[in-house]
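In the design runs reported in the main text, the only information available to the sequence generator was the tokenized backbone. The following block is the verbatim input for one such run; it is reproduced so that readers can re-run the procedure and compare outputs position by position.
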């Protein structure tokens, strides 16, 4: 069962009131980058290819069609007994852009990333709300202890 937006907001903390939605909380766009070298997925390890961060122009990212990595501004913490997912804000999708998500594991804490697919040029203001984070109840044995634990926390 998906939890309420208020429950998700309490798990994340430190949000503006307009970020709290009925079924989740909105995440903002903290940074945009483009991958510039190949990554590698091996049977036992992985390597994320280098990226170049895009500078916003007067606070606005003007993006041509392509694939980008979006960094979210909020510290996400997935409580035990739950799993998280990110959906695009529907206005982003209605503008021919999409955010893709992997699984946000129970116990993960950090500022995560998503794959931003731009199918028609778009302007995104820095710190604008672009995504919605939701939590669902989920059974699990362990909690997250992978290499991205505590990423981009101050
Ligand atoms: O769209 C997503 C989905 C997940 N995460 C975060 C939360 C998740 O718990 C963590 C690790 O994801 P995953 O377990 O899929 O990473 P991995 O590629 O298997 O690496 P590792 O084994 O080091 O965890 O990344 C994101 O930032 N963006």
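Verbatim output:
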């Amino acid at each position: 069962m998906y939890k309420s937006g208020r429950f998700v907001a309490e798990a994340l903390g430190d949000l503006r009131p307009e970020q709290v939605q009925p079924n989740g909380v909105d995440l903002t766009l903290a940074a945009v980058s483009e991958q510039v070298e190949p990554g590698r997925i091996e049977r036992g390890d992985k390597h994320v290819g280098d990226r170049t961060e895009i500078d916003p122009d007067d606070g606005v990212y003007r993006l041509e069609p392509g694939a980008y990595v979006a960094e979210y501004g909020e510290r996400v913490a997935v409580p035990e007994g739950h799993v998280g997912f990110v959906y695009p804000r529907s206005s982003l999708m209605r503008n021919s852009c999409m955010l893709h998500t992997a699984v946000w594991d129970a116990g993960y804490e950090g500022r995560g990333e998503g794959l931003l697919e731009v199918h028609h040029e778009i302007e995104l203001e820095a710190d604008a709300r672009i995504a919605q984070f939701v939590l669902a109840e989920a059974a699990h044995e362990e909690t997250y202890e992978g290499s991205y634990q505590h990423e981009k926390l101050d």
